[in-house]
Amino acid sequence: MNAQYSCDTCSNYRYDEDYEEYVCMAGGMDEDDFSRLAQGTVKACPYYRFDNEYDIVKKQM
């Protein structure tokens, strides 16, 4: 998987207490999409959003 589009830095990648693991919360991504992304068939995740917690602070200033 492309490091630029790593799930670890995506704002859609959240901890799910029911499953007790991190899952993609992007609307529209299913197991097939995730499988293609993990296999490298797709160059970039269409649901990737950089998780920048400072964006909110920038808007408040």
Describe this structure in words.
The chain has helices at 31-39, 55-60, and strands at residues 13-16, 21-24. The relative contact order is 0.23. With 61 residues, the chain is an alpha+beta fold. The chain is built from two helices and two strands; from the N terminus they run ββαα.
Summarize the structure.
The protein is of the alpha+beta class and about 60 residues long. It contains two helices and two strands.
List keywords for this structure.
61 residues, globular, 25% helix, alpha+beta
Task: Tell me the β content.
Answer: 5-15%
Radius of gyration: 13 Å
Mass-distribution shape:
globular
Number of helices: 2
* Distance N to C terminus: 35 Å
Low-confidence stretches: none
Estimate percent helicity: 10-25%
Structural class: alpha+beta
Looking across the biggest beta sheet, what order are the strands in?
1-2
Count of DSSP strands: 2
Q: What kind of sheet is the major sheet? A: 2 strands, antiparallel
Order of helices and strands: EEHH
Quote the average pLDDT: 79
Write the topology of this structure.
Layout: E1 13-16, E2 21-24, H1 31-39, H2 55-60
Antiparallel strand pairs: 1-2
